[in-house]
Input
Amino acid sequence: MSYIEMRTFEHFLVPVARSMPSNAAYLKHLSKSADPGLIRLASNENTEPPSPRVRQALIDSYEDANLSPPPIPPLRLALAEHHGVGADQVLVTAGSTEVIDATLRTFVHAGDEVVIPDPLWPVCRTRLQALEARIVAIALLRDETSFRYDVDAMVAAVTAATKLIVLCTPHNPAGNAMAADEIRRIADLGVPLLIDAAYSDFDPDLDLMALAAAYPHVMITRTFSKAYCLAGLRVGYGVSSPELIEYVDRFLVPGSAVSSTALRAGLAALEDREYHSYQVTRIIAERDRLTPRLRELGYKVWDSKCNFVSVDASDYPGRGDALAEELLAEGIVVRPFGAIVRISIGTRSENEALLGAMQAVAR
Output
């Protein structure tokens, strides 16, 4: 037996593969959510079904399921019209995660410097870790009721070595949103800027898409998983300058990872403006009703511009993991992030069940 035959495949792993966190561990909340008897408030999904138009789109997708989607699908054209940009400024992907990952790989090699907020959606940080980036994390500021970006510190952290800046607004998992002048201040630095705007439907006062026209180095990512109720179909997109879209597209698998079924469903959901408006209005109202109710129960809850609220579990024995387990015993699945417990906004009845569980746990 040769020397090569004696070695296991682990011998050939790149070093970072050994240190990266397990996807199974990150997704364990979904395994818990598989129990139909539990209320799913862990993944920022919309717990209501999508627009009735989506049902017909799913049925119609049978007719062309044997064919590859066109390079420029109708959904891409509709999104361009919706945002007032050219079709060459839109890139439709399998969830916004795919375009985020492709943007990271467009700009970042091993050792490159990337400025991010802390905390940040763990998947984005993990993808940077996979690229062996040098992460410069700037802590969010916080007070009794809210988080906010430390824009001065982020600007000061940018150096000649910075290859990319990452923002998330409204922020996951903190819930805060940035003002337009704060974003422009960072965009004015001229460094490539990735803005994860997955929750911007729930912050309707700020139109981020104007940045795509003003700054060719800015990529804004959006998703159909929240307000459009399509988390299970994986539809997202990015909006930027035609030049940046072209470069990022090179890091995607040719032919699109988005199925024709998902493309049809996304188009149907986008075209039902009334249903989208209903979902946004419903979720914002429930979010703003839930926040003071939780505070009345004695919990520290930060203001949110997302489809979730975040609870401070830093003083809870066992912190976020322990609080999440206590709620699981009450039939509610939520998402712990260290000292933060993130709770998705459900239906009114689901939110009432949550309040009952939180009251029981508080006792």
Summary: The two ends are 65 Å apart (CA to CA).
